Amino acid sequence: MDSVGKTLFIPLYGKAAVSRKGIILSDPTAEQIWEAEGFPVKRRSRSKWLAYFMAMRAAVFDNWLREEMAKDREAVILQVGCGLDSRIERVGAGGHRWYDVDFEEVIGLRKRFFQPDEQYHMLPGDLREPGWLRSIPEGTNALIALEGISMYLQPEEMQSFLRSAGEHFREVSLLMDCYTEKGARATKVKNPIRDVGVTAAYGTDDPAVWEQGTGFSFLREHDMTPGDLIEQLPGAERFLFRTLFGGKVARSLYRLYEFQKTM
Fold it and tell me: Long-range contacts of range 119-126, CB-CB < 8 Å, 24 or more positions apart?
């Protein structure tokens, strides 16, 4: 597995860690996979603060998807760069067709822990080569979650995928996180992704970058460290996280953007 693929173990560790503590999100499958795989994340990747952040980000994506699924009962769900995430279990397909997409070797590992059925599908695929979209019916509406993936792709590669998705589906709602320019620069100094060998990352402070020539429009920015989730942290950790890692501090490094493509 290449260095980008190995980044999947960082959020997996975070979700397993908070699930064991009974805060932010319940994810027994993450606990199970972590125990089974035991990938040696180290140093910054094992930070409890990063674990809290990864879990909060996942919870925000979960909540957004639940809300959008309730609005559009016919939309297909795409989670591109799914890694070993168990969002399908945390959220549930709820009658929607759900597609988890990632590199072939990641999907091969994923199939040890998840089973496809009539609603749930796992597709090997690379966002940069979206031929796999042909495996999904055209002309439907789609809800797309791009969590922890945009920072590893050049802007032109992301724009190309957005164009392909916009042409394939009728209407699309999409949520994606990305580094800011400051966040991308910080990867050259200290960042957990360096622990697994990733040395190149990309960021932007302007969501209009993803609108250019794609057919998508920026809708709104989401908070990746909501106050109600910070409140679940124990004791002094609540104050320290809010002061050192949440709110404006998080936003200076990461952004969470929602886009929409309509007819």
Answer: 119/93, 119/95, 120/88, 120/93, 121/97, 122/82, 123/99, 125/80, 125/101
Find, among 62, 18, 10, the residue nearest to 233 by Cα.
18
Domain ranges of the chain: 59-261
Q: What's the angle, vertex CA 86, arms to CA 53 and CA 78, rounded to 5?
A: 95
| pTM flag (> 0.85) | yes
Q: According to CATH, what is the number of the domain 59-261?
A: 3.40.50.150
Q: Which of 146, 165, 238, 253 is nearest to 204 (CA)?
A: 253
For 150-184, how does the pLDDT look when each residue is reduced to its tens digit (9 = 90+)? 988 988 999 999 999 999 999 999 999 999 999 88
In tens, the pLDDT along 102-118 reads: 999 999 999 999 999 99
In angstroms, what CA-CA distances link 153 with 133, 139, 251?
A: 18, 26, 20
